[in-house]
Amino acid sequence: MLQSSCRAPGAQRIQAPLALLLLFLAGPAWAAGGEMPSLVSDIGVSLLVAGALGVIFTRLKIPSIAAFLLAGMIIGPIGLGLVTDPVNIDTIAQLGFILLLFLIGLEIDFKKILGSGKPIIVTGLLQYPLTILFGILATKVMLLLGIGGELLAESPYAALYMGVFLAGSSTLLVVKLFQEHFELDTVPGRLSLGILIFQDIWVIIAVLIQPNLQNPDPGLIAMSFLGIILLSLFTVIVALSFVGRAFTWIAKTPEMTLLGALAWCFIVVFVGVNLDNIFMATYGRNYHMAVGSGMAALIAGASIANLPSATEIITKVATVKDFFITLFFVALGISIPMPESLDVLVIAVSIAVIAIIVRQVIFFPLFYFTGVDQRNAQVGAVRLAQISEFGLVISFLGVKLGHLSPSLTSAVIFAFIITALATPILYGKAYEIHKWLQPVLEKIGFKAPPELQLEEGRQYKLAVLGFHRDASSLLYNLTETDPDLVKDTLIVDFNVALHPAIAEFGLGEVKLLDPTCGSGHFLLGAFHRLYEAWLDAEPGECVEIESTTMRRDAAQLTLRLTQQALANGYEMKDASAFNILFDGSHPVFVDHGSFRDGYSGHWPGYSQFGDHFMSPLLIEATAGLTPTAAGFGVDG
Questions:
Q1: Contact predicate 605/527, CB 8 Å
Q2: 3-state DSSP helix/strand/coil percent for the chain, to nearest 5?
Q3: Is the pTM of this model over 0.85?
Q4: Fewest C-beta atoms under 10 Å: which of 28, 75, 272, 491?
Q5: Strands 570-572, 580-583: parallel, antiparallel or unpaired by DSSP?
Q6: Longest CA–CA separation in the chain, Å
């Protein structure tokens, strides 16, 4: 028995890699002694390779999107050919796109978007056609310079299609990054989301015109928009009369909340895509009013965005969505063809470069001249610098219609991949890019709003970091109850677009400082300086009660840990008072999940730090009150 259990030295090391290799090369019939369905096998292989590469790429600080695309290439036709039926992955991946648009609808605040007024509406109407014109001119220049060879010259529609490819930005990538960084409610976030919605509407027009480029039918376009309006009315009526009540019944059952949300999403999707069949069965006529699944999902989400359980729905659906989005990028990697010539890669790189340039030539000036300040206009333009996934759809349709060659479509796919890989980097560096370009922008006439500087020697009794909902409410109450305190109030906010909102209070004595760095370092240092100045100026006012001392200690521990994290390449994504427990009088940080790898360019937890620490400490220092941890908030 002992002898039979012995193994030759090194056998264990050999068997593990061999088993892993056999796992990949094994056919579907190897699973559990029986035949594994191809769908399950393909999804399993996709997730296995994507997960393994994702861990490695995360460790190397490379965007996870690159890992998913590479996974698709490895298991696809140009790699090992491990996926038996790529249609399986592509079909499942489309669910991720539907769920993403459903989530976007849940987070859309139409009042804020419409309240943005001219910047979104005017830019949304002009950006798409102007970018198409720019793309046509850029294609002509490429042909004159001999770039692209026969691929661009062989199709009379190539220049027009190039303009369409350049005009759209990726809803999938942009919204995902804004959600991950909790910036969807910022000025660049609302601006980008509004433009993406307009772009989606333009895509509908493009797809309707595409089959009849020589003789487009305005009637079909009008009927498609009528279908969107009818579907929107249907969803709003049903949501107000029944869906909201149904969600109150299941609010205490988390799994039913998720199931109910998904059911509502697909009810609206099924109604939208089958509008033509409904009218055919009812009236015997096809009015061509069917609504695409993506737009229908967006409408479904927007119709229940104001429900009390909307936040919980977003949390539940987001987890499921991430699974499908992973498969979306793997499917895209699987679809990547082998380049037939060097011209394919040259055109792909050219498209990617022009896409970044056109954001500066078209997007930024439109944002700026419609009233967005220089910095937010630049940040919004930089973060929209990628090719849209809808451009891939349009390119595939172009091949089917005989407008484009398959090789040119391959170039568009490679261009999307290049910009998709660049997008996380551009997103994180957007404020730094603005800082680099600011001197040039100033010289050519794009002026930044003047910054108000602190008066030398001026003393303030109250300092507020960030001016948003909570801060504006606090300031409004102070104008009613203590106008003298308002005259000695300093407001520090990164968003210069909020300066007019301060002026609406009629408070000429309120000073506003706009730090140009835009990072959490400013806020961390500001708290230390404010706290130390208070101790120096009001030593007799410091009353050592237990709650104040503990709040102060907890705040200082949070700041120290945040600074240490930044110094080691990490950041703290929240700054809640509930992250701190006390061992006697000693504060202990207990939420290790608050740290994440990398630095996003700002402090995601600064709003929460203001709510739980800064505002209460400042109120205690100036008014002698002892508010609760979240009793006063300052957010930006």
A1: no
A2: 70, 5, 25
A3: no
A4: 28
A5: unpaired
A6: 92
